[in-house]
Specification:
The protein has 389 residues and is an alpha/beta fold. Helix content is 41%, strand content 15%. The strands form four sheets. The protein has a seven-stranded mixed sheet, sandwiched between helices. α2 crosses α9 and α9 packs across α10. The N terminus and C terminus are likely disordered. Bound molecules: pyridoxal-5'-phosphate.
Length: 389
């Protein structure tokens, strides 16, 4: 018998990137179940229950629909289901994911105004209100609740309130928020909330979840973009019967079911509080080691922390040192801020002991890098990136 070994398959690297996140054994076990008929009574009963769990986790009486897919698929799904070519939208951009969501809307020919702030700063409700007042007829505002690239949480309830005052739809990218940060779909008046399975939902990548409220359904009725796979009407019609329009990714659905049961058992508010405690612990620890946060500390995220590498050291060097010296995977920034921020994920199936190990690994690696690097004049680093705290 030939033994197949790949260093990737055999990797024992500990994941502390901001998604995919570690998958708990309960979820792994659930995904190992044998396949069942996706058109049979067993699946129907299972799926109706799963959709109920998903609605509760989103705090909505509206629909939550699930597709094979990812967060980016959610962006496209929103565009083709809510709009017609030329519709006006306001895309808020405070990092790479907001930038990419805006790009998808532009690709499809929407009339997109970007409200962009320096990366590391939050979108404010005041700025959103002003932008909407300047441009009557805006149909929707796109907002990343948690901008993973800068490790920043936008003040979503306040933004949503302003958007609704202006009669526009609130479309939320909650990919790195849902399941980890407080999320009140109905109480905050969110019209669409999209997320992927691979972050605080504690599952492998591969599922797109979308909460869709009544105002979004009304907009969907008149939206004229062609669509097939992502069509909300077809998905809802099937979901009402406990079915899916196409063959569902059964193993992932089994996993999501187990994960949502774990969250429900912990109590979702307790889950949110655990994330808040971990976020605080990580920030206090890093600041205590003399490191500085990348985003405005008032909006620092509780699912991912972004910190600046020491002066003269690139974020990618910190990531490499922590991986090589401790076998822990972190992530550097994206785009223009690739070497200005190191990102440490703490969402989903994570608790204090493993975060403390990661923090010690970061501390040791940073000290090692600093000892190994000649000092660099401050003026040569971080050019163009605004500093906070
Ligand atoms: C906030 C946010 N939106 C969208 C995405 C894109 O999701 P995916 O890579 O699953 O398509 C990500 C991925 O990390 C994200 O963090």
């Amino acid at each position: 018998m030939v033994e197949v070994r790949s260093k990737h398959v055999m990797s024992r690297e500990t994941l502390r990137i901001p998604g995919p996140t570690p998958v708990p054994p309960e979820v792994v076990a659930a995904m190992g179940r044998e396949m069942i008929s996706h058109r049979g009574a067993e699946f129907r009963a299972f799926y109706l229950e799963l959709l109920g769990l998903a609605r509760r986790a989103h705090r909505t009486e509206g629909d939550v629909l699930i597709w094979p897919g990812s967060g980016s698929a959610g962006w496209e799904s929103v565009v083709v289901n809510l709009f017609s070519p030329g519709d006006q939208v306001l895309a808020t951009v405070c990092g790479d994911f907001g930038h990419r969501f805006a790009g998808v809307a532009e690709t499809f020919g929407l009339d997109v105004e970007r409200l962009e702030v320096p990366w590391g700063r939050a979108i404010t409700p005041g700025a959103v209100g002003e932008a909407l007042a300047r441009r009557p007829g805006t149909k929707a505002v796109l907002v990343a609740y948690n901008e993973t690239s800068t490790a920043l949480t936008n003040p979503l309830p306040e933004i949503a309130a302003v958007v609704r005052e202006h009669g526009a739809l609130v479309v939320v990218d909650a990919v790195s928020a849902a399941g980890g940060l407080p999320l009140e779909t109905d109480a905050w008046g969110l019209d669409v909330v999209l997320s992927g399975s691979q972050k605080a939902w504690m599952c492998p990548p591969g599922l797109l979840l979308m909460a869709i409220g009544p105002r979004a359904w009304a907009a969907h009725e008149t939206a004229r973009f062609p669509r097939f796979f992502w069509d909300w009407t077809a998905a809802r019609r099937q979901a009402e019967q406990g079915m899916t329009p196409t063959t569902p990714p059964l193993s992932l659905l089994f996993g999501l079911d187990a994960a949502l049961r774990m969250i429900s058992q912990e109590g979702i508010e307790v889950t949110w509080a655990r994330h808040a405690t971990l976020g605080e612990l990580v920030r206090v620890d890093l600041l205590g080691r003399g490191l500085r946060l990348f985003p405005d500390p008032d909006y620092a995220s509780n699912t991912v922390t972004g910190f600046r590498p020491p002066e003269g050291i690139a974020a990618r060097a910190v990531v490499a040192a922590v991986r090589e010296r401790h076998g822990i995977a972190l992530e550097a920034g994206k785009g223009a801020i690739v070497d200005s921020v190191v990102r440490l994920g703490h969402m989903g199936w994570v608790h204090e002991p493993e975060m403390r190990l990661a923090l010690d690994a970061i501390g040791e690696s940073v000290e090692w890098l600093v000892a190994a690097s000649p000092p660099v004049p401050a003026a040569t680093t971080g050019a163009g990136i605004r500093e906070f705290g």
